[in-house]
Amino acid sequence: MQIDIVSVFPEYFDVTGLSLLGKAQENGLVTIHAHNLRDWTHDVHHSVDDTPVGGGAGMVMKPEVWGQCLDDLLDMPDGSTRQQLPTDQTVGTAEVKEQKEAMKSSGGESDGIASEADSSVDSHKAGVAEPILIFPNPSAPLFTQADATELSQAKRLVFGCGRYEGYDARIPDYYRNKGTDVREYSIGDYVLNGGEVAVSVMLEAITRLLPGFMGNPESIVQESYTGDEPLLEYRQYTRPTTWRGMAVPEILTSGDHGKVDRFRRNEAIRRTSRIRPDLIARLDCSTLDKHDRRL
Ligand code: 6GU
């Protein structure tokens, strides 16, 4: 999977080089490039925002800068030519242009003045994955595990981080109208300063589902929100079986796997009913067995 992130704080994503996501990049499972939106500005102040049309507080991100940036990024092929990019996570306009030139001379793309239809045919011929464009937006539908699962199948994702009071609404509209798969997601009912944290959250939820990402793929299957039954997970314990006078539930030490499974499932259903009744309301009742129904 190839991931591009556009932000006015690309350094924010330096942390993607750490931990399991860092390993996944070393192993070639995923490449992540964070770009600085200001590299696509032309004015001396490198301004990316302006006051809202119609008045009001705050600033709105300008469509021209985003347009130039996304035209460049969405035009780029995946995998093969990507490897020519510098190892530095932050890639500016110069490198992007360089890469496009390299692509053209290697016959990887049409002459650049072809019609939209032509260039899309060409990109299919060259085996170029169509990117999905994702904008974090507190006023959008909630990002869920189902979205993470779907997006983990994609070859290319491009994230655009908005700052300040948001971005010009015509930006996603423009690319949607051009046929790009454009998504806008909120990560929860609270306010953040910008899209960077939200993109980090989505990035982690998506990439950990890539085949080969997790040491133990079983740990994904058992989790809360996964599969047809979005139940909260049962509570976990490890040794010692008694700690500061608190014993783990006795059934878990019984060695009877049937009883352990039943105990854990009961706990998952009871906890979900109490803590997240909204999830129970969404439950597909045909997945419940006769023991579940008695709870
Ligand atoms: Cl996606 N962006 C911002 N700025 N705030 C949020 C959010 C996104 N999701 C929840 N709060």
UniProtKB/TrEMBL annotation:
Primary localization class, coarse: cytoplasm
InterPro entries: Alpha/beta_knot_MTases, tRNA_m1G_MeTrfase_C_sf, tRNA_m1G_MeTrfase_TrmD, tRNA_m1G_MTases_N, tRNA_MeTrfase_TRMD/TRM10
Region of interest: Disordered: 76-121
Substrates-to-products reaction catalysed: guanosine(37) in tRNA + S-adenosyl-L-methionine = N(1)-methylguanosine(37) in tRNA + S-adenosyl-L-homocysteine + H(+)
Keywords: Cytoplasm, Methyltransferase, S-adenosyl-L-methionine, Transferase, tRNA processing
BP GO terms, sorted: methylation
Biased composition (Polar residues): 80-92
EC code: 2.1.1.228
PANTHER family: TRNA (GUANINE-N(1)-)-METHYLTRANSFERASE (PTHR46417:SF1)
Subunit relationships: Homodimer.
Family of the protein in this entry: Belongs to the RNA methyltransferase TrmD family.
Protein name as annotated: tRNA (guanine-N(1)-)-methyltransferase
Organism of origin: Bifidobacterium asteroides
Organism phylogeny: Bacteria, Bacillati, Actinomycetota, Actinomycetes, Bifidobacteriales
Gene: trmD
